[in-house]
Amino acid sequence: MAALSLCSSLTPKFSHSQQNPTPISSKFNLSSSSFLSHSLSSLTLNSRKPPHTLSFVPKSNGTDTEVALAEPENPEAQPVIETVEPKREEVFAVVMVGGRQYIVFPGRFIYTQRLKGADVNDKITLNKVLLVGTKTSTYIGKPIVPNAAVHAIVEEQTLDKKVIVFKYKKKKNYRRNIGHRQPITRIRITSITGYQDSPFVTL
Amino acid sequence: MNKKEVFKLAKGFRGRAKNCIRIARERVEKALQYSYRDRRNKKRDMRSLWIQRINAGTRDHGVNYGNFMHGLMKENIQLNRKVLSELSMHEPYSFKALVDISRSAFPGNKAVVPPKKEGLAILV
């Protein structure tokens, strides 16, 4: 818990400047440059960091550990590849599918209970959106966010890994060995829309 | 189950239980019974863990778990404990918004005094 509070206290400092007189943050600088062990020009890369850290740090919706992971990865990728990823909006939603709730990000996939009647590469809209969070505001649904929708594509309709259901009663010579594979569906989330007009809380 | 399947399931067992069929068969049957029972226990344990995490998160803001959930139920917010615990860990600002909503819906917590820090913790 102390380590987490350290991270959260450090992230605002990173947004201001790389050089900080305080000993704790300078130690943090050293440890982050040790990640870039193979790059000689680590200092120049650090000086180029501010444009990237600004894009990550203001997303202070928690994700402190993700910031610590992103920083060493970014400068490594810069000299190697200059491909530009399509700018994905940083938003998440809590959606209810198959009786279960999932935290969902655009571009990632989730496994849900089998959706009957959905074929591969079908577009799907999930309407039961309970919460939407962006970098600056949170839309809390009571119980759902009105007009919000999460769009997804069905990727795969498979069976889950096998579990062995073994039933046994001692001294009664009763043994049953049954295998079970639950049908599941993998869906890839493409976008989260329709939440802009709802009441929100600014962070 | 034939012997090959039994030995496959007995990987990592201690001593003769991974090598000798008579002992392995007993241990494997026991292991499968435990896994049947624990698939049901896991659901209970996870819920207990989520509740502990939500409790910790809300007490940072001066609200305890019981009053927090009561406030959410009153406001008809149907987020489950799994999602609430994830939000309390990774999305602190959204979680604070939820705590504020719950507090306004159901007040009834005394002002929280932060715990006294002793020793090296004072420096943090």
UniProtKB/TrEMBL annotation, chain A:
The UniProt transmembrane annotation reads: none
Keywords on record: Ribonucleoprotein, Ribosomal protein, RNA-binding, rRNA-binding
A single GO molecular function, which one?
A: rRNA binding
Q: Which InterPro entries does the record associate with it?
A: bL21-like, bL21-like_sf, Ribosomal_bL21, Ribosomal_bL21_CS
What Pfam families has UniProt attached to this entry? Ribosomal_L21p
Instruction: Give a Gene Ontology cellular component term annotated to this protein.
Output: ribosome
Tell me yes or no: is Ribosomal protein among this UniProt entry's keywords.
yes
Q: Which family does it belong to?
A: Belongs to the bacterial ribosomal protein bL21 family.
The protein's name in its UniProt record: 50S ribosomal protein L21, chloroplastic
Q: Which organism is it from?
A: Penstemon smallii
UniProtKB/TrEMBL annotation, chain B:
Q: Which SUPFAM superfamilies match?
A: Ribosomal protein L20
The organism sits in which domain of life?
Eukaryota
For this UniProt entry, what's an example GO CC term?
Answer: plastid
Any one Gene Ontology MF annotation carried by this entry is: rRNA binding
Q: Which CDD domains match?
A: Ribosomal_L20 (cd07026)
Q: What does this protein do?
A: Binds directly to 23S ribosomal RNA and is necessary for the in vitro assembly process of the 50S ribosomal subunit. It is not involved in the protein synthesizing functions of that subunit.
Q: What is this protein called?
A: 50S ribosomal protein L20
Q: Which organism is it from?
A: Penstemon smallii
